[in-house]
Amino acid sequence: MGTTTSRLPQDKLDQYSKLTFLRPAVIQRCFDRFRDMNEDRIDANIDEERVPNDIIVQEFPELVSNPFGPQLCRVFSSANDKATMNFEDFLDMCSVLSPNAPIQTKADWAFRVFDDNDDGLITAPDIENVVLQLCGTNTFSAEDLEQLVQHVLNEAEGRESDAIGPQEFRNIISRAPDFALNFTIRF
Fold it and tell me: CA angle, 134 as apex, 160 and 79 as ends, to 5°?
């Protein structure tokens, strides 16, 4: 991995500053970290060069220690197969995960992370995946896991439901005071 720094062109820095929740110095730091993964190619073509998500997760302690690191990369990827990120994808992720991003923006992206099958709803299988990622596969019996998942769905709006939609998820998040802190990474 490289150790030299390359300045992001000023016009790009200005553009990204207007489009993200990040200060120019943080954008440059994000660029330096992204560039270190493949500096020759990224210097040659910053807009098009893509880095595999698994490398991004491995290279960033903030993501490797996060059980949702791979899903974060997947939902922010603009690639058709969702397996790689370009710098703008990476910067979008950094922006949403920054302390400056509004809670509703964070909630919208968190919804996409938890909606594992991309059907626009958080369903029982999605919740089960979240629980297993957070707690491990040997923590609950099948019956206990099913009861936990059903309890989460029932608590979503205080009614029986088989899915949580985006607006319901925002409502849940608005009642979780620690959400913004937990959905923040300092890059």
Answer: 90
Checking if the pLDDT of 46 tops 90, the result is no
Q: What is the mean predicted confidence (pLDDT) over 57-69? A: 92
**Gap between the Cα atoms of 109 and 80, Å rounded:** 18
- SS3 assignment for the chain: CCCCCCCCCHHHHHHHHHHCCCCHHHHHHHHHHHHCCCHHHHHHCCCCCCEEHHHHHHHCHHHHCCCCHHHHHHHHCCCCCCCEECHHHHHHHHHHCCCCCCHHHHHHHHHHHHCCCCCCCEEHHHHHHHHHHHHCCCCCCHHHHHHHHHHHHHHHHCCCCCEECHHHHHHHHHCCCCHHHHCCCCC
> Which CATH number fits the domain that encloses residue 139?
1.10.238.10
**In a shared domain, residues 60 and 92:** yes
Query: pLDDT at residue 68 above 50?
Result: yes
Domain assignment of residue 132, given as a range: 103-182
